[in-house]
């Protein structure tokens, strides 16, 4: 098994994105004078859900890709999946603030979550094939 250096690099990038999102939520709470929860504020709720959605999908997806890479998986797949994951996780919160049923909402939020699910699924399949 090798150290998954490519995944580690992108995990660092995603960690910085997550830290930025955390600050975004904290800023919304300070601006809205909300100690916890969303205080009934739609904008803050969207920030919180964007932040939570990131945390719900990114760790398991990174783990799957890291295991695939550490097991000697193809670097093209590793890098491609990670690039798509980073783009998807940037797009998703942008789409959370788009008006309902607009092209921007579909392009950002919809593509962001669909791309994240695709990366997670492909990484799972590659890992299963690698270990079969």
Descriptive notes:
The chain has helices at residues 5-32, 42-70, 75-96, 103-131. With 132 residues, it is mostly helical. Helix 1 runs parallel beside helix 3, helix 2 (42-70) packs antiparallel against helix 3 (75-96) and helix 2 packs parallel to helix 4. The longest helix has 29 residues, at 42-70. The protein is elongated, with a radius of gyration of 16 Å.
Ends distance = 16 Å
Tally of strands: 0
Find the structural class using helix and strand composition: mainly alpha
Biggest sheet, open or closed, and with what strands and sense? none
Write the layout of secondary structure elements.
Elements: H1 5-32, H2 42-70, H3 75-96, H4 103-131
Describe the structure concisely.
By secondary structure, the protein is an all-alpha fold. It contains four helices and no strands.
Could you name the key traits of this structure?
132 residues; mainly alpha; 4 helices
């Amino acid at each position: 098994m090798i150290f998954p250096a490519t995944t580690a690099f992108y995990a660092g990038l995603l960690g910085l994105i997550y830290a930025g999102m955390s600050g975004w939520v904290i800023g919304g709470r300070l601006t809205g004078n909300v100690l916890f929860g969303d205080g009934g504020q739609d904008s803050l709720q969207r920030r919180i859900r964007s932040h939570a959605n990131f945390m719900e999908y990114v760790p398991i997806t990174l783990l799957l890709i890291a295991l695939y890479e550490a097991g000697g998986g193809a670097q093209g797949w590793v890098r491609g999946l990670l690039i798509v994951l980073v783009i998807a996780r940037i797009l998703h919160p942008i789409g959370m603030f788009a008006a309902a049923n607009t092209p921007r909402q579909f392009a950002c939020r919809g593509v962001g979550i669909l791309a994240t699910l695709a990366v997670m699924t492909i990484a799972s399949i590659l890992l299963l094939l690698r270990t079969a």
